[in-house]
Backbone:
């Protein structure tokens, strides 16, 4: 890129503008069905984006040898956390130490971090339950319920895997199915 600082400034301005719009929506929209579908879309998009970032970044990070260049090695893990807007939340929970297994567990299973997959699936489930109404189990609700159960009850088994690609591919596939069932249930006329 010929002018990298200008590009960074443009990205920063875009991000600030998006945060302004999202803040205005959150503080002014009536909490009706429109707002709930907006939150559903936000949760689904954030979850899918996080899954794809982890799918692309984790294999390379796990293959890196930490003994060759320690500052670079830890910078890459910090960058992953920063990319997913999770660095400060991770530091609040674990302090300054960067342990790859803790980073992975945090990004996959932390129930309180808005960028973790478990939190995202729970948020998606909550949105679907409110939209469907009490006691109504829909096709998307079933899919998200199974996925949330995996994150809540299979954490130890999933963390023992040497490669997280299969887990992340499964999550991406389930989110794609969920998207299709949402479209069928609510948007096809």
Residues:
């Amino acid at each position: 890129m010929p002018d990298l600082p200008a590009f960074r400034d443009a990205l920063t301005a875009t991000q600030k503008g998006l945060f302004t719009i999202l803040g205005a929506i959150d503080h002014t929209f009536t909490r009706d069905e429109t707002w709930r579908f907006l939150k559903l879309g936000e949760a689904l998009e954030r979850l899918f984006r996080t899954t794809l970032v982890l799918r692309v970044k984790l294999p390379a990070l796990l293959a890196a040898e930490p003994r060759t260049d320690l500052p670079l090695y830890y910078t890459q893990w910090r960058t992953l956390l920063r990319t997913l807007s999770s660095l400060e939340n991770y530091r609040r929970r674990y302090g300054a130490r960067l342990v790859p297994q803790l980073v992975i567990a945090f990004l996959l299973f932390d129930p309180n971090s808005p960028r973790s997959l478990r939190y995202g699936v729970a948020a998606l489930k909550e949105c679907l339950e409110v939209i469907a109404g009490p006691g109504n189990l829909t096709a998307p609700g079933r899919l998200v319920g199974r996925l949330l159960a995996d994150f809540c009850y299979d954490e130890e088994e999933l963390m023992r895997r040497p490669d997280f690609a299969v887990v992340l591919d499964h999550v991406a596939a389930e989110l794609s199915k969920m998207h299709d069932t949402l479209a069928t249930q609510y948007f096809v006329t």
